[in-house]
Amino acid sequence: MRIVSGMRPTGKLHIGHFFGAVKNWVELQKDNETLFFVADWHALTTSYKDISKIKENTLEMVADWVAMGLDPEKSILFVQSKVKYHAELSLILGMITPKSWLEINPTYKDTKYNLLKIHHVEKEYKDKLAPLVDIIFKNSPVEVEDEKMFKDIMLDSLTDAFIKLLVEGVIDREKLGELNLSKRDFYETDTFGFFGYPVLMASDILIYNADGVPVGEDQLPHIEITREIARRFNYLYKEFFKEPKAILTETPKLLGTDGRKMSKSYNNTIMIDETEEETASKVMKMFTDPTKLRKNDPGHPEECNVFSYHKIFTNTDDVNNIELDCKSGKLGCVECKKMLAKNLNAFLSPIREKRKEIKKDMVRDILEDGNKRANEIAKQNMDAVNEILGL
Ligand code: TRP
pLDDT tens-digit profile of 51-69? Predict the structure, then answer.
């Protein structure tokens, strides 16, 4: 099978990227023809204002890929913008893609929401909502130990809620002025390139006539559109494109250290490129079962984020003991976290060692070679498409 997938140039990766994507890629490269690329054009569809880090992020990310086990001998690792055929095919496929297919795409709304957060709206909302959070804190129905943490989480959630109201149209966009937000903020996320995101993504996949695309669940609507575009091309002109299948990444439950989705913007990640001490200190600050206040209180491992980490990073025997000893009250959270820190670091150690050996020039060479190989395959398919179209 030929397998293709891409990742936006987010820079240094965390363990969420490993379990959410790269681990699966590494397994697939064993028995398949695999192509993995840095989706730098896709980065522009959303963060076109902030272009300062694309190149640096590309190199950092690919270095982490290789450290995590992607093998440039087995997989073609390349950069989207270095294979111009993606763009050429995207232009063609855009001609036959009905606008309505893009408008109903659920990821569109979701991403729009995230975008709105990323652009300055989030900060402005936060400033406005902060006084409200003080009031909530003073009237909190539960006793709170850590005032700052309480306020941070409350502010994030409230801000989220308000942005959702905006995206869903519950807050009239015309009233944005009263909220001291410019209409421009909203329109800045409303570009042609962002709207056409799925067409570009379809081209990334179809230009290689891939059989399978490993992705997370959030990307399924995009794969569905890709299949629809392939069918439409085949129906209109000639049977040429395969209908690529999504290969769902089975992700173990791995949240951020604060129990929310792991994300750099929440500052709750475990990075590949951090020291063992940094990792240990993050683990020691992790939230545990809130009802286990004193060491000998009985705990509820199934509701504890630290325990869900243990299930991934600790051997089965120890996990079973931890479960029993936590429940009985024998094991305290501090001890439990120390074990986790040790196991997490042991797991990351070989990846970190390897990462240290990978220099920027090596990554440049890997990509140069990958770009060349990807171009060869893409060219063949693009030539065929142009032939079919009589161009
Ligand atoms: N949209 C994907 C994401 O945000 C990245 C991506 C771009 C991709 N093109 C692709 C993934 C093609 C798979 C195949 O994660």
Answer: 889 999 999 999 999 999 9
- C-alpha of residue 388 to centroid of ligand 1, in Å: 27
229 CB contacts (<8 Å, ≥6 apart)?
Answer: 93, 96, 97, 101, 199, 202, 206
Q: By alpha-carbon position, which residue is closest to atom 9 of ligand 1?
A: 201
Task: Give the separation between CA 8 and CA 4, rounded to whole angstroms.
Answer: 14
Q: For ligand 1, is residue 204 a contact (CB within 6 Å)?
A: yes
Closest CA to 168 of 257, 106, 87: 106
Question: Within 13 A of 53's CA, how many CA atoms are on the CB side?
Answer: 11
3-state class percentages of the chain: helix first, strand second, coil last, to nearest 5: 65, 5, 30
Cα of 326 vs centre of ligand 1, distance in Å, is 41
- Angle between helix axes 220-236 and 106-116 (nearest 10 degrees) is 130
What SS3 state is found at 221? helix
pLDDT digits (tens, 9 = 90+) for 293-341: 787 888 899 989 999 999 999 999 999 999 999 999 899 999 999 999 9
pTM: predicted TM-score of the whole model, two decimal places? 0.83
| Whole-angstrom distance, CA of residue 217 vs CA of residue 20 | 10
Cα separation, 98 vs 196, in Å, equals 11
Cα distance between residue 271 and residue 12, in whole Å:
7
Contact assessment for residue 69 and residue 26, using Cβ atoms and an 8 Å cutoff = yes
Q: How many CB atoms lie within 10 A of CB 326?
A: 27
Cβ distance 242 to 226 under 8 Å?
no
39 lines ligand 1 (CB under 6 A): yes
End-to-end CA distance of the chain: 30
Determine the Cα–Cα distance for residues 77 and 66; give it in Å rounded to an integer.
9
**String of DSSP letters for 272-296:** SSS-HHHHHHHHHT----TT--STT
Compute, in degrees rounded to 10, the torsion defined by CA atoms 272, 274, 275, 280: -80
